[in-house]
Amino acid sequence: MATYANYQLISARGSGAGWAMVGDAFGFVDPMLSPGLCMAMSSAERLAAAIPAHGGATPELDRALNLYWHWFRDQLTAWQDLVEHFYDGRIFAIHRAGSAFSQKHPGIVSRLLERHTAKHFSGMASGALTARPYSRGLLRFLGRHFARGSEPGLFAIR
Ligand SMILES: Cc1cc2nc3c(=O)[nH]c(=O)nc-3n(C[C@H](O)[C@H](O)[C@H](O)COP(=O)(O)OP(=O)(O)OC[C@H]3O[C@@H](n4cnc5c(N)ncnc54)[C@H](O)[C@@H]3O)c2cc1C
């Protein structure tokens, strides 16, 4: 029996002369955090905006399609980054470390920090902030320096 466990795929190229790929056809990176529908719809929106209403294959169209799929690839790469933090347990370890910090130092600073990280992490999981550099940097920073002491391995999904 053959089994298939890796759902991740990002195409090496997303457009050419007179064609472009949208949604799952270009890439799909995770069945858990629901980037599928989000990216299918937002890539369709971007692609529609790249195509001139009057049609016609012009050099500008080629450039616009090229920009479009590079944007799409960057979005999927950002989703992969988030998904990795989810599966290897770092997100849960950050949460645990944050809860321990709040218990140790109750008050306004803890509440503000918690609200700030919750805003960025939920924004990333919803698709609104997934590729935003600051949100990605915050996740990476906390994953590297904050989660380490909270045993991310315990929360890893295997
Ligand atoms: C079981 C399951 C559960 C999922 N759950 C979620 C979820 O909870 N959240 C989430 O975000 N995503 C989920 N997804 C992923 C999500 O469904 C896809 O990422 C999304 O539907 C992709 O949209 P799309 O328009 O790119 O492709 P599709 O929705 O696959 O649409 C492609 C369409 O093209 C048609 N087609 C194919 N070949 C041809 C052809 N030659 N000529 C004409 N038409 C053709 C197909 O019939 C289909 O209707 C799930 C997927 C599966 C399979």
Task: Give a written overview of the molecule.
The chain is mostly helical and 158 residues long. Helices cover 61% and strands 5% of the residues. The longest helix is centred in the middle third of the chain and has 29 residues, at 59-87. The two termini are 20 Å apart. 25% of the residues are buried. The model has no long low-confidence stretch (mean pLDDT 91). The structure holds flavin-adenine dinucleotide. Flavin-adenine dinucleotide binds next to helix 1. Residues 23-25, 28, 34, 36-38, 40 line the site of flavin-adenine dinucleotide.
Secondary structure: elements and pairs:
Elements (H helix, E strand, L loop, with lengths): L8 E2 L4 E2 L2 E2 L6 E2 L6 H16 L8 H29 L2 H15 L3 H19 L6 H13 L6 H4 L3
Antiparallel strand pairs: 1-4, 2-3
Bound molecules: flavin-adenine dinucleotide.
The site of flavin-adenine dinucleotide has 9 residues, from α1.
